Amino acid sequence: MKKFLIAVFSILILLIKPLYAELNIQELTSQNGTKFWLAQEKSIPFVSLEIRFRGGTSMDDNKTRGAVSFMTAMLEEGAGELDAQAFSKARDSIAASFNFDVSRDNLSVSARFLSDTREEAIQLLKQALTTPRFDKEAMERVRKQIISIIASNQKNQNKIAQSKLYELTFPDHIYSSSGLGSTEKITLLNGNDLRQAHKVAITRDRISVSIVGDISEIQAIEMLDELLENLPNSSKLLPKRVRANLDLGTVLVDYPSPQSVAFFTFKGISRTDQDFFAAFVMNHILGGGGFNSRLMKKIREERGLTYSVNTSLAQYDHAELYLGMFQSSNDKISEAIGILKKEIALLANNGVNQEELEEAKKFLIGAYPLRFDGNVRIANILAGMQFMGLDKEYIKLRNVMVSAVTSEDVARVAKRLLSSKEFTLVVVGKPEGLKASH
Amino acid sequence: MIKFRKFYFIFILSVIVPLEAFGNVTSFSLENGMRVVVVEDHRAPVVTHMVWYRAGASDENSGKSGIAHLLEHLLFKETENVENGEFSQTVAALGGSDNAFTSQDYTAYYQRVSKQYLDLMMYYESDRMRNLKISELDFNTEVKVVIEERSQRTDSKPGALFNEQNMASLYLNHPYGVPIVGWRHELEDLDREDAIDFYKTYYSPNNAILIVSGDVDPKNVQVLANNFYGSLKNTIYLDARKRPSEPPQIVERRLIFEDERVSQPYITRTYLAAERDSGQQREAAALTLLADLIGSDGIQSILGKILQLDNKKAIYTNAYYNGLSYDDTNFSLIVVPNSDVTLLDIETELDRVINTFISNGIDEDHLERIKFQYKAQQIYSLDSAYSQARRFGVALTSGLTIEDVLAWPKIIQDIKSSEILAAADSLFKKERSVTGWIRKPFEERE
Fold first, then answer.
1. Across the interface, which of B116, B145, B263 has its CB nearest the CB of A152?
2. Which domains does chain A have, with CATH numbers?
3. Cα of B46 to nearest chain A Cα, Å
4. Which residue in A218, A307, A206, A236 sits closest to A61, CA to CA?
């Protein structure tokens, strides 16, 4: 019955009108030369604006590690004539919201504002981006918050596992350490360090922008030129590519908890690799596909050894990884790791069967258009696409690429990525019956 | 082939009852008493289909904690007509997503798919409302999974254990003091019959609410709902929903929770608080605004202003209140002290700020800004049909009506400062509160 229903409905899925046919994306260039994407959607009177500045915490110097994330936290703590409190009052009195966030490779700005107060919102955001104050008092307050977060992370089981993995995988590269910095370094940072971080991390030529909502083409162009006019161009090179160190086997970290946390990584794959889509489908089948993935079925559904297990292809600007994680009770983690290794070997040696390949492709193809609902979600996707270097045709081509993946493609890429020689597993907890490799 | 016929050919057109429409929201009931709410959003051809049961962890029999949530897991297993995991696999094959969640007051299941599969979702969801099979094997495996879930989300996190103890201390008699996931020793003791009991008692159309949001026509939803859910039988005897209630609380409670995994000590103060009641939402609206004025609006709130900006004794302050609850809810404050300030000092400061707030009255400008943000939120929230649908689900399983939900934004705008002060006055009573300290054990402190 199941197979029958799926067959019936997968025929239907080919007949539906794709959502993105209705999504009209304009590729525009502002007067000042900023390229951006616009999707007009006038039914709700607000605008969503997403900006990504390439670089992120990787723009830190080693000796001032943490300066970019500290600076990012300070963007809403006063700008231009307004101190921290005056700034938040001005923002709230027009019910705008600005979120500033930073990761390894980019600093992101997510803004949302009502159509009626667009100009006021842009003036405020412009001040935050171009003339942040870095007031001493606000800096001391935020510094203490960051130090408290660093201390919490040092005691957080997941964070311990994650940071151990990056430290071992990327020795001698900026990716090896947390972008938050260390207590010692944060303690020493001063206003000049933040101003320097601001200068290198928020630059006009390393920008990806999308605008979605109740705004016209001309308004969008004027808005962007106004917002970005005072930003500098980049003055610091991006970090170099790094080769991931992946042959560390099993690494153990002691931690008092009834459960152990396992983070693992294999070799990753670049988005421009001709086997990227094969790897994308493979990941869905192995551990990316929620309840229907092989690992979820074997480790959770059949044996109850974990609450959740997942894997994902990570593409950073200067490296790639194939990451996974799960948690199991200390007395069960060895059994779970045994199953993980068995499943990995099985996939590397035998590939996937036709039926699961088709099911995975159906999901990936069908799920793609469903992502495009809501202005905020669409704005996010469009900025992310530009950041990854994709053009807007990708929206139409993406499902074609997924559907072209064959079981041979998956078998080839599985053999290539899932090698037991290039595998690192970090376990944090009090695992029973597990030995470190070194 | 029987299942095939069931899905495709049972189009019994029952009497169409009148639809009540409020803007983009339409509501009606089926003959068996099942409530239906439709939220229209035609921007994208997507639909979210949800079924909410008025049954959550607080409806469990005593000694059976965790059964509501465990049963939620088991609903993804087999039924008399559907194979183990088939529903989720079908949703996945359509590119959709599905999940479920359990709270103290409700259990809810949802799928998000392309709009033309709404009938298929209804077929599966209505089937598992009455036809679930629970095998011994599935039950035993799923208990293990839930114990792992508890280990991951609660036992591995000192903050989560601390919250669990706070709730257990706040509620002297009401089951809100029992964790949704269940106490570990009771989870280990649950058996299959407990799950079957809970299922048979509560999974009934007259105890359920269907919510469909997205690119749909309410009339069409009505026809489909009648076909799939309209013919389901009700549980014959379903008691009125009544949990043990709180006695007068006459003594303040204090906790000191120590765990070697804590890095940052902090304090919380949690008060028993009124929830939103049907037709009587003003006190809850006043408490909602009070939370913003006192703590949840960052450095504009009085806690942030005094403790973070002025005397710099705290590095983080916040307030939480959620009026959507079937029985008495709670209002909590959290203060994370600066490293040179003791927990005792920061507790004294917290009490001082509460007193200052009550004696100084309300900053009208701040109140206006907060109200304006709630007004704008009505516009922003239109961007997600899913969250609108979810809001109705929570409200309707918390004893509110659609009218209550629709009236709420205006009530928030109408609340006067005097009502907020009155609500604060009856809220901030130590004998109806728990004060919690969380820190690392003494020998590990520096």
1. B263
2. 24-228 (3.30.830.10), 249-429 (3.30.830.10)
3. 7
4. A236
